[in-house]
Specification:
Layout (H helix, E strand, L loop, with lengths): L2 E6 L3 H12 L3 E7 L3 H11 L3 E2 L3 H4 L4 E4 L6 H10 L3 E4 L7 H13 L4 E3 L7 H6 L8 E7 L11 H16 L4 E9 L8 E8 L4 E7 L6 E8 L2 E6 L4 E7 L5 E7 L5 H15 L7 H29 L2
Parallel strand pairs: 1-2, 1-4, 2-3, 4-5, 5-6, 7-10
Antiparallel strand pairs: 7-11, 8-9, 9-10, 11-12, 12-13, 13-14
Helix pairs in contact: 4-5, 5-9, 7-9
């Protein structure tokens, strides 16, 4: 039987999720929800499905939902959905507060429900190709920059963009986070629009991560340095480049180019399969929690930096 699935929140990402789910085998898209009735009506008409202003009617028929509403609403909506025994795919970040994420994870576990978080770069074909080659990285470098779009301004750039690379880093770095130092600044909004963080791990690994949503160009670069190999990923283009020294001491290069790049479809497919097989998704609620905890440490460090800068300027 197809999985009866609805979408709550049909802004930019919600529309993408809706389009993907409508085309997916094994899924019955049963409706969309948004406070913007005109927006929901237009998308519903496109796919020939019902639309609602509130989610009560949708939940009465749903087995699973995608939540793509503003971050501040994630907790209340997801808690209601999970309490009704419905599986949840949550757009990142999982919640605004660590305590909220912990409560949702505990609730999903108690009810034996799937709770997946939309850290879609885990499904990047370049990252998945590189993953088996990554062993004890020593240094990680990430650049995620974008022009200002006006979207996701309910959160700062750390929760909007950087959190993707924080999640990737946590998935491959060994040991615990021992130190976080970060700088950042508001540029076009009242929150942090550009940020740079240095994260140290007990294994000796160091990660330098930069994110900006006020850049001229769009870039998604992730580099890993380890004793036996250098790996460079262009996550946006689905490209991996590696350099490794062979037994004769000659550096050999390898290139990989993905033929198709659709991490949103792949993460939704993983969600659907996790629900049907009753297994953990590739990116579970716990992963979203760990990324949120690290993001908060970055934000705290940036606030300390800004406070010192302000104090200096007032001397």
């Amino acid at each position: 039987m197809p999985l009866r699935t609805g979408v709550i929140g049909v802004g930019h990402m919600g529309r993408i999720h809706t389009d993907k789910l409508k085309q997916m085998d094994g899924v019955q898209l049963i409706g969309v929800v948004d406070l913007d009735v005109a927006q929901a009506s237009e998308l519903a008409a496109k796919h020939g499905i019902p639309h609602f202003k509130t989610y009560d009617k949708l939940l009465s028929a749903a087995e699973a939902v995608v939540i793509a509403t503003p971050t501040q609403t994630h907790f209340d909506i997801a808690r209601d959905v999970l309490k009704r025994g419905i599986h949840v795919f949550m757009e990142k970040p999982i919640t605004s507060l660590v305590e909220e994420a912990q409560e949702l994870i505990a609730l999903a576990k108690a009810k034996d429900l799937v709770l997946q978080v939309g850290h879609l770069e885990r499904f990047s074909p370049a990252f998945r190709k590189a993953f088996p080659l990554i062993h004890n990285p020593l240094f990680i470098e990430a650049h995620r920059i974008s022009p200002f779009t006006g979207r996701s301004t309910d959160v700062d750039v750390v929760l909007d963009l950087m959190i993707h690379d924080l999640d990737l880093t946590l998935s491959i770095a060994k040991g615990e986070v021992t130190d976080v130092r970060a700088e950042g600044a508001p540029v076009v909004t009242n929150t942090i629009d550009m940020a740079s963080a240095r994260i140290e791990f007990s294994s000796g690994c160091v990660a330098n991560i930069t994110a900006s949503r006020v850049s001229r160009n769009r870039e998604r670069i992730f580099r890993i340095f380890q004793r036996d190999r250098y790996i460079s990923l262009d996550l946006m283009k689905g490209k991996m480049s590696t350099a490794v020294k062979n037994r004769e001491g000659v550096v050999e290069f390898e290139e990989y180019q993905a033929q198709s790049i659709d991490p949103v479809q792949d993460e939704l497919r993983d969600f659907v399969e996790a629900v049907k097989d009753m297994r953990k998704p590739h990116v579970a609620g716990e992963h979203g929690l760990q990324a949120l905890i690290l993001a908060n440490r970055v934000k705290t460090s940036i606030q300390d930096y800004l406070a010192k800068a302000k104090a200096f300027s007032e001397l």
